[in-house]
Amino acid sequence: MELSGAEIVVQALMDEGVEYVFGYPGGAVLHIYDALFKQDKVKHILVRHEQGGAHAADGYARATGKCGVCLVTSGPGATNAVTGIATAHMDSVPLIVLTGQVPTPVIGSDAFQEADTVGITRPCVKHNFLVKDVRLLAETIKKAFYIASSGRPGPVVVDIPKDVTDPNVKIPYHYPREIRMRSYSPAQKGHLGQIKKAVDAMLEAKRPVFYTGGGVVLGEGSAPLRELVRATGFPITSTLMGLGAYPMSDRQFLGMLGMHGTYEANMAMHETDMLIAVGARFDDRVTGKIEHFCPHATIVHIDVDPSSISKNVRVDIPIVGPVSTVLTDMVRLVNEHRRAPHGDALAAWWAQIEEWRGMDCLRYDRASDRIKPQLAVETLHKVTGGDLYLTSDVGQHQMFAAQFYPFDKPRRWINSGGLGTMGFGLPAAMGVQLAFPDAAVACISGEASILMCIQEMATCKQYSLPIKVVLLNNGYMGMVRQWQEFFYESRYSHSYVDALPDFVKLAESFGHVGMRVERPGDLEGAMREAFGMQDRFVFLDVVVDPTENVYPMIAAGKGHHEMHLSPERELA
Amino acid sequence: MSNARHIISVLLENEAGALSRVAGLFSARGYNIESLTVAPTDDPSLSRMTLVTAGSEEIIEQIKKQLNKLIDTVKLLDLSEGPHIEREMMMIKLRALKEDREELKRLADIFRAKIIDVTDTSYVVELTGTSTKLDAFIDAVPDGLIVEVVRSGPTGIARGEKGLTL
Prior knowledge:
Chain A has 572 residues and is α/β, with parallel strands linked by helices. Chain A has helices spanning 5-15, 30-37, 50-64, 76-90, 117-121, 137-149, 192-204, 214-218, 222-232, 263-271, 284-287, 323-336, 343-357, 373-384, 396-404, 425-435, 457-462, 478-487, 503-509, 520-532; strands at 2-4, 20-23, 43-46, 68-72, 95-101, 127-130, 155-161, 170-172, 208-212, 236-238, 253-256, 274-278, 298-303, 317-320, 389-392, 413-414, 441-446, 468-473, 513-517, 538-543.
């Protein structure tokens, strides 16, 4: 089969089984767009901004576990995609970003729409390629998919100059089924000796706790994690990115940990003598001040990326390997072990945890005559029966969702944890909805975040995506306002959004349904009505109490035991 | 915390951009880098890089892990962990007027350096050795006679029969 470079790109996507490409055309990718036009296997979704394209492909990848694919033109097309690429990079999401480039003879001449895409994206990709020879195109795309989806996943950029896709130059096409790279071979199994050592230490522990992160979701470790947690009877907490890997409604789950984690989770971290970190990376929002982090604990750390281990916190028993296989090995060893977990010590540990849990640290004013954002999230859970894919933007609404929507399955909670990208939620929801057309998909957002990618409402209209936007509208950049209240003596410098659009009319102008709720009593009815419209995109503008803050809170640079609870229940 | 000097050898895919990935890694993560040399090996598909850095044990460990994580890195060896040989090459241009010529020639002989270019008023001296030897030569040149110094940065190889190869 003889194909042009443009046809090779499209054929390679077919051979990879790609369903959707999220993209935006432009000069340098016109040959590729022409090749896309002539087939109907790979469906192209026209976004309205390249950032939205990258986020949509990212959302698709997070929900399915497959590689997301994004196609943009050179120069501004590529630079617009950079925020989306960096977002995927920080959260280790497998993403292929195909970028057009100016023709090879003019690279470096400051040609029209030229940017050094490989240079610009280098610090925020797992790897990138500039393909200067059409004969290398198929193999490079194969490598890109392999690198993006194996080991610790991440985004890979393939920069393709226009002349490389020339429709008049045809070459024999061969797409390798498998690829081996001498410079890249991610770990396939954990070291059994280390795993045994870890299990022995775990069964010795008196106050153990599991601390799990996004790696469990990415590495398909949810099932063996559940087995291991149940087999040991240990408590478990999770980072923002790991929520849902273990059922959040289960008694053994202590809630999220970290800056806005629960009292019981953070206190357990502070008092534990055995921390079992799984696919988590000891991020500063989780650890707080490193000197105060888990002062009494022996630390086991399972991660597929060796560079994650002992990066921020010194680890005692490192295990490099895919979390799924390591956890499976652990389950087997725990079940075979002569020693059972430390029964009495564990009972005392649970009694202590229940006492902390009794603080009811997430309590809020349910009788308020204003809609509390927490109530909005709880109502969302009630109305959707917990069966929902929820994407989020960044800020208070993100934290309230993480605290008040108990996810019981992995890949249901989709948010930008590492980079914290406002504008992520709506386009990410598009990717999720396309992947699961019959599922309920919602985007929780704030009136500031949503405006950062609001143009994607047009994409939702074009492809009839019945996403529900739940906007917690408090008129402020809530998290910025909260920090200004706490740390800048309530000087609300530029955190008030003074000229908000009428979101109902805005949604209607895009051809959608807009609704506004202002009273707590109307909330559930409105949500039921919104989710009842199964074939419509509904924008639900929920006016919430503008003064509400996210608690508990550990201020930056403090330890887990230095949490602030809401003012009326502040610790002495 | 001691900031020990480490000399690290890396075999890299000889791809465009491999060098900038390494340089970018050091600047992005704020690692210290004293020198970096790179050239293709006998296998034209591989480059060998030698870099000299300093840091605490934890930082050096991270540097090695991060270098290994680069997709273009094929193999890595911290030469400082075992017996090894280090060499750096220097060319130094000296002002060599009548009254200084003999003295500079003698100095070159003492250091087993070679004079590889001569004019009526200048020498270019070539000297190979450890970095400290090159420093010593620079210190030994009488004040005011150095016109220009160019150094390659250290390269190194482990002692013994084992090689850093594929």
